[in-house]
Design a protein that fits this description.
The complex is a heterotrimer of chains A (about 160), B (about 750) and C (about 300). Chain A is α+β, with helices and mostly antiparallel strands. Chain A has helices at about 25-30, 85-95, 105-115, 120-130, 140-155; strands at about 5-10, 10-15, 50, 55-60, 70-75. Chain A has two domains: about 5-75, Beta-grasp domain (Ubiquitin-like (UB roll)); about 85-155, DNA polymerase, domain 1 (Orthogonal Bundle). Chain A is built from five helices and five strands; from the N terminus they run E-E-H-E-E-E-H-H-H-H. In chain A, strands 2-1-5-3-4 form a five-stranded mixed beta sheet, sandwiched between helices. Chain B is of the alpha+beta class and about 750 residues long. Chain B has three domains: about 30-125 and about 190-265, Aldehyde oxidase/xanthine dehydrogenase, a/b hammerhead (Aldehyde Oxidoreductase, domain 3, Alpha-Beta Complex); about 280-455 and about 580-735, 2-Layer Sandwich (Aldehyde Oxidoreductase, domain 4); about 460-570, Aldehyde oxidase/xanthine dehydrogenase, molybdopterin binding domain (Aldehyde Oxidoreductase, domain 4). Chain B contains 17 helices and 31 strands. In chain B, the strands form eight sheets. In chain B, strands 3-5-1-13-10-11-12-25 form an eight-stranded mixed beta sheet. In chain B, strands 7-17-16-15-8 form a five-stranded mixed beta sheet, sandwiched between helices. In chain B, strand 29 and strand 30 form a beta hairpin. In chain B, helix 10 packs parallel to helix 16 (about 705-715). By secondary structure, chain C is of the alpha+beta class. Chain C folds into three domains: about 5-50, Uridine Diphospho-n-acetylenolpyruvylglucosamine Reductase, domain 2 (2-Layer Sandwich), CATH 3.30.43; about 60-170, Uridine Diphospho-n-acetylenolpyruvylglucosamine Reductase, domain 3 (2-Layer Sandwich), CATH 3.30.465.10; about 175-290, Enolase-like, domain 1, CATH 3.30.390. Chain C has eleven helices and 14 strands. In chain C, the strands form four sheets. Chain C has a five-stranded antiparallel beta sheet with strand order 4-5-10-6-7, covered by helices on one side. Classes of the chains: A alpha+beta (about 160), B alpha+beta (about 750), C alpha+beta (about 300). Chains in contact: A-B, A-C, B-C. The structure holds flavin-adenine dinucleotide and FE2/S2 (inorganic) cluster (2 copies).
């Protein structure tokens, strides 16, 4: 069984995987990181999105071994200690989560977006989450939350 | 009373754990020593099972058990009519693709997966009935021979006034046929869960469910166990929208645990969820509407035919509801309604946001807009002349209870969209210039209303327990609300906690709502019918009032705990009655919510594509317990309505599913939503509601499709009477109109 | 799924790995097609040879008027590349409309070609650009026109179990040249098109000097409407002419009735609409370019 070594949420981890395992399954089943959700299993919804070297990918379609030696960030890796990431806080403040199943993926997509483009336009925000489906919200409060997070981050002087 | 908590957009009770990804959904539970189960699904929509050979699967190492019909103590269930086998055995029939032949249980998911492919099933295919209109005809192949000689499950009749007279009084009559499709709930969390035997020997299920106490009854019947030997725990639910009102996995998990006495986990993948779970009913609707020259409705004649699919599920209550709302939120003196629901071999159909009020809303609102056009009257103005008010006589002969806010929703939406009100006249706004020469703009209006709570004489009730923990000084340190109301995401627990905080006069942060565990919480009734704020809210207020009294006593005795149980019955304030067999007259519903919406669209005249630019949604919720949550419901409702109008179509051919995945069944993405979305919260109180509140969850979907479709007509002059209005459909209609087809 | 997952460190090593497994090993890039195909039993390879870590395959660059794109380049990188946006905008638009951001971050343009679907957005743009691909086999490397790769729906003449595509190239659009991409789909994001079209136009003065039109999915493979394009060359690209050329392109297209994509008739007419719009936008952009260049 090959060993996958990655920097997961800032910590080096080693985990035995099968060659055919997908990253989502390794995170959920082998590492117990249940924040990464599976909804469609075919790259169509973004519920399973995680960051690999800072870029959002759908982990349900991502061979686990591709993460070999990479930095992987899941929803659990956002924020520090007990403090929420400003994006997470903005999601709460804007009543963005309804059922919440899409939310980890949405937050990850928002994180990827704001890290690359701290001052997105409304259109850029929409593009940033256009790979994430939500059945509950109509997306409006999610967009507002990302706008709010961008504002707050700008006040504090940029993301990270 | 001035409200401190009610009416505030406090953070949702579960938001912090949800944004962290810590909240556990059913697939997130794992137990020590758990096994994995997979279902062997039917391969045919209608067939007799001749032979089931499990031996090759059994031989696979790691397979623990393969359950077939023989393993089910009482092999039947059904939420409304007990017409479904849990597992279909040899010699029995499958009636849709979602029927189950066997459940394979193995040491790992992979083994179970592999083993299910080894189960050999021989079928004798039977004729497939896929159109309810055909299925109704005498001589059509019977889906349920055991239930008599017709596929018709139910016929509802309403006869109000004198229909002949009504049409004789009409100057204009519009007669049209409408069709709405099957819709997939498409909640983002596929069915999943764990079944196990708990420390007290009870068969226990962890799964998403909308009415766990009803599941319990069905499970106890299936396993032939007393109620106290079964238990259901409902963790976070990843959306439901009606789709979890019925059991699709709960009973299977219970059966697995019961048979193997070990924890068993089962997760449906998206394809299983789409193929094998219930849908929104398609409705085939014939409407004939008459009005006088000055725009007063005189008569409406309606035929509704709904496709129930292979089993009844809630098709009858959905039909009852549909019929009662068939004439829309309007005063119509003379009416005749015939509504049918019919078995076919299509997907089972069930509750979905609106519960039968959504489909006729499409038809009656299209009729209103066609009438407006025929009469040359503004569509807002025509509605204002006919909308219900307090005390108006509804279709079923009952006076509307106080709190009818429909006119106010329309007024606010119309003014917001730029309409001008001049006396009795309403004048449509200028729509501005389209963004390209080949695009046309149009605007459309629609209204809708729907019941809150269970109807037609059903004893709708909610039982809650409120427990207070008092601190040294006798102040309430913590309040715990226990009720069997699951929160599928809309925020029921938050709203109920707010109501409790308000009623107790304490901070919201001090209130907890217990996890739904049937061994702990009492029956709160179904998490559907937009009913929890109203029903459970009323129960909580009363329980809290009692708790406040009891606290006074406790202060004297030095007791540190207070516990109150209260059961609220809807009929204590508004008794409802079932349809009269002959004329359908009744007082159907406890309370109502109202909504009006307006869509501004651009249609590409060359491709037929529609883009919704701007959307206004006004909902009368009586009292917004949490305004941001109300807006969230509006956004979500419009999302579903927009999918209904434009992109979503669950396609079956001869009972086989053609839209198998999210890559084939298209719910709207963020890019499909109107860029500009303007929600209005209207508060016309219902005096019987908690703080005047009604309900909101479902209403927000009702007018969306007719508003958009009418806007398309306004833009390019064609009516799309069968949803969805795909680009191609609009294009064909435009061609027809141009005389080219 | 597969049993082994390998990361070759060089092109030669990748080819050796393929050879060593005698048809059981297959190239994988982003995996956005291959993972699903493997799960659905449409790909039986037991060994994956992941090419995304081979040094030196991640470039987008221009040399001698040709743009080269390495096999690791993703749709996202193409869509964001200033070079592609300015010298082959049609490809940036095509790649920018693939799936959603997460798919574009992973899926490669070369993979889009090898997957050989007639609807592929990246590939359609490459057909309009008249691209060539470089095939590397144990015997050596050679360039071949993109069209030679296509043998039917999902059938690529280059066998990813024996050979590898290392890069693509096409002529950068220059003075008086521009392209445009149009697409029709069931919704506005995250969905395969029911129809797409890419057009390139080169202007000299007020006459068309060069034109190319590609349409998908209206045949077994991406379709190049050569005759229609020919009918534009040497002409003034006014509205009338463009409409007529688009008509010709639509006539030549052979879409089929599809339950999920729509009727043949609708899509045939739509092919005309998309081609007309793409040509029109291309002409507008090209004349702007010409104007600018003329001024500089
Ligand atoms: C949710 C979703 C949405 C999508 N939407 C679109 C869309 O809108 N438009 C669109 O066009 N496509 C779409 N796609 C498909 C698109 O992502 C792929 O076609 C992608 O471009 C393939 O690249 P890849 O690197 O992922 O290829 P892989 O999956 O790794 O490989 C694809 C094929 O190419 C072979 N291969 C890959 N690289 C090489 C090479 N260098 N040499 C030889 N063989 C090679 C592989 O063996 C395999 O046969 C979508 C996919 C998903 C999952
Ligand atoms: S679960 Fe991975 S994209 Fe939907
Ligand atoms: S909040 Fe439920 S899917 Fe987005």
């Amino acid at each position: 069984m090959p060993t996958l070594k990655m920097i997961l949420n800032g910590q080096e981890v080693f985990v035995d995987v099968e060659a055919g395992d997908l990253l989502a399954d390794v995170l959920r089943d082998k590492l117990g990181l249940i924040g990464t959700k599976i909804s469609c299993g075919e790259g169509e919804c973004g519920a399973c999105a995680v960051l690999v070297d800072g870029r959002a990918v759908d982990s349900c379609l991502y061979p686990a071994l591709k993460a070999q030696g990479r930095e992987v960030t899941t929803i659990e890796g956002l924020g520090q200690d007990n403090r929420l990431d400003p994006i997470q806080q903005a999601f709460i403040d804007k009543t963005a989560p309804q059922c919440g199943y899409c939310i980890p993926g949405m937050v990850i997509s928002a994180k990827a977006l704001l890290d690359e483009n701290p001052h997105p336009t409304r259109q850029e925000i929409e593009e940033g989450i256009s790979g994430n489906l939500c059945r509950c919200t109509g997306y409006y409060q999610i967009i507002e939350a990302i706008e709010l997070a961008a504002e707050r981050l700008a006040e504090k002087g940029g993301p990270k | 009373m001035s409200n401190r908590v009610v009416g505030q957009s406090v953070p949702k009770i579960d938001a912090a754990t949800k944004v962290r990804g810590q909240r556990k959904f059913p697939q997130d539970f794992n137990m020590k020593g758990q096994l994995y189960a997979k279902v062997v699904w039917s391969e045919y929509p209608h067939a007799r099972v001749l032979k089931i050979d499990v031996s090759p699967a059994e031989a696979l190492p790691g397979v623990v058990a393969i359950l077939t019909s023989k393993d089910v103590p009482v092999n039947e269930y059904g939420i409304n009519i007990v017409d479904q086998p849990v597992l279909v055995g040899e010699g029995e029939k499958v009636r849709w693709l979602g029927d189950r032949i066997a459940i394979v249980i193995g040491e790992s998911e992979k083994i179970a997966q592999e083993a299910r492919q080894l189960v050999r099933v021989e079928y004798e295919p039977l004729p497939v009935v896929s159109d309810p209109r055909e299925a109704m005809k005498p001589g059509a192949p019977l889906i349920h021979e055991e239930r008599g000689d017709s596929n018709i499950l139910k016929h509802v009749k309403i006869r109000k006034g004198d229909i002949e007279k009504g049409f004789a009084e009409a100057d204009v009559v519009i007669e049209k046929y409408y069709l709405t499709p099957h819709v997939e709930h498409a909640y983002m969390q596929p069915e999943a869960g764990v079944g196990y035997i708990d420390e007290k020997g009870r068969v226990t299920v962890i799964a998403a469910a909308q009415w766990s106490h009803d599941d319990l009854h069905q499970i106890s019947h299936m396993l032939d166990l007393p109620l106290d030997q079964v238990r259901e725990i409902v963790p976070a639910i990843g959306g439901a929208f009606g789709g979890r009102e019925d059991m699709y996995i709960q009973h299977l998990l219970a059966l697995c645990a019961y048979c193997v006495r070990r924890p068993v986990k089962m997760v449906f993948d998206r394809e299983e969820s789409i193929r094998n779970t219930g849908k929104r009913h398609p409705y085939y609707m014939k409407y004939r509407t008459g009005a006088t020259r000055d725009g007063k409705l005189t008569a409406v004649e309606i035929e509704l035919i709904s496709d129930a699919g292979g089993y009844a599920s809630t098709s009858i209550p959905v039909l009852n509801n549909a019929a009662s709302f068939a004439a829309g939120p309007y005063v119509v003196p003379h009416a005749k309604v015939d509504a049918y629901t019919v078995y076919t071999n299509n997907a089972v159909t069930m509750a979905m946001r609106g519960f039968g009020s959504t489909q006729p809303a499409f038809a009656y609102e299209m009729q209103m807009n066609k009438l407006a056009e025929a009469l040359g009257v503004d569509p807002v103005e025509l509605r204002m002349k006919n909308l219900l008010e307090d005390g108006s006589i509804a279709l079923t002969g009952n006076p509307m209870p106080k709190g009818v806010g429909i006119k106010e929703t329309l007024r606010q939406a119309a003014l917001g969209a730029g309409w001008r009100e001049e006396g009795d006249q309403w004048i449509k706004p200028d729509l501005g210039t389209p963004s390209a020469p080949y695009r046309r703009r149009g605007i459309g209006v629609a209204c809708g209303y729907k019941n809150v709570g269970y109807s037609f004489g059903f004893d709708d009730k909610s039982k809650v327990i409120v427990e207070l923990a008092l601190d040294e000084s006798g102040e309430v340190a913590r309040a715990l609300v226990k009720l069997g109301a699951s929160d599928q995401g809309m925020g029921a627990h938050t709203a109920l906690a707010q109501i409790a905080a308000e009623a107790l006069g304490i901070d919201y942060e001090k209130v907890r709502v217990a996890l739904v565990d049937t061994s702990v919480v009492p029956n709160g009734g179904s998490c559907s019918a937009s009913r929890h704020v109203y029903m459970s809210g009323n129960a909580i207020i009363r329980a809290c009032q009692e708790a406040v009294r009891k606290r006074q006593e406790a202060l004297r005795t030095g007791e540190r705990r207070v516990s109150v149980e209260y059961e609220y019955h809807g009929r204590s304030v508004r008794p409802t009655t079932p349809y009269d067999d002959e004329n359908g007259m009744c007082d159907p519903h406890i309370s109502y919510g109202y909504t009006s919406q307006i869509a501004l669209v651009e249609v590409d005249v060359e491709t037929g594509q529609t883009e919704v630019l701007k959307f206004l949604a006004a909902q009368d919720v009586g009292k917004a317990i949490n305004p941001e949550m109300v807006k969230g419901q509006a956004g979500g409702g419009v999302h579903m309505g927009l999918g209904y109008a434009l992109t979503e179509e669950f396609i079956q051919k001869e009972g086989l599913v053609k839209t198998r995945r999210f890559s084939e069944y298209h719910i709207p993405t963020v890019a499909d939503m109107p860029r500009e979305f303007i929600p209005f919260i209207v508060e016309v109180p219902d005096p019987t509601g908690p703080f005047g509140a009604k309900g909101v969850g479902e209403m927000t979907t009702l007018p969306t499709a007719p508003a958009i479709i009418s806007a398309i007509h306004d833009a390019v002059g064609v009516w799309i009477d069968n949803l969805p209005a795909t680009a191609e459909k609009v294009w064909w209609k435009m061609r027809e109109k141009a005389g080219m087809a | 799924m597969w049993d082994e997952y390998l990361f070759p460190a060089s092109l030669d090593e990748a080819l050796e790995m393929l050879e060593a497994h005698g048809g059981e090993a297959r190239i994988i890039a982003g995996g956005t097609d291959l993972v699903l195909q493997s799960q659905r039993g449409q790909c039986s390879a037991k060994v994956m040879v992941d090419i995304t870590r081979i040094p030196g395959l991640d470039y987008i660059e221009e040399r001698d008027g040709l743009i080269y794109i390495g096999a690791q380049v993703t749709h996202g990188q193409v869509a964001a590349s200033p070079l592609i946006r300015s010298r082959a905008g049609v490809l940036a638009q095509g790649c920018g409309s693939v799936g959603g951001p997460q798919i574009r971050n992973v899926g490669t343009l070369v993979g889009n070609v090898v997957n050989a679907l007639p609807a592929a957005d990246g590939a359609i743009a490459l057909f309009a650009l008249d691209a060539e691909v470089e095939v590397a086999e144990r015997a050596g490397r050679h360039w071949t026109p993109i069209a030679t790769l296509y043998a039917g729906v999902g059938l690529c003449t280059v066998d990813p179990c024996a050979a590898m595509i290392t890069q693509l190239r096409f002529r950068a659009l220059g003075k008086g040249e521009a392209g445009a991409f149009e697409r029709l789909a069931k919704r506005r994001a995250l969905v395969l098109p029911i129809l797409n079209a890419a057009a390139i136009v080169g202007l000299k003065g007020n006459k068309v000097e060069r034109a190319r039109i590609a349409i998908g999915p209206v045949a077994q493979t991406p379709f190049v409407a050569a005759e229609a394009a020919e009918a534009l060359v040497g002409r003034t690209p006014d509205e009338d002419r463009i409409s007529r050329v688009a008509q010709l392109a639509a006539q030549a297209a052979q879409p089929r009735d599809s339950l999920l994509r729509g009727s043949a008739e609708y899509r045939k007419v739509m092919a005309g609409v998309l081609v007309r719009r793409a040509l029109w936008r291309a002409v507008e952009a090209a004349s702007l370019q010409e104007g600018e260049d003329a001024n500089s």
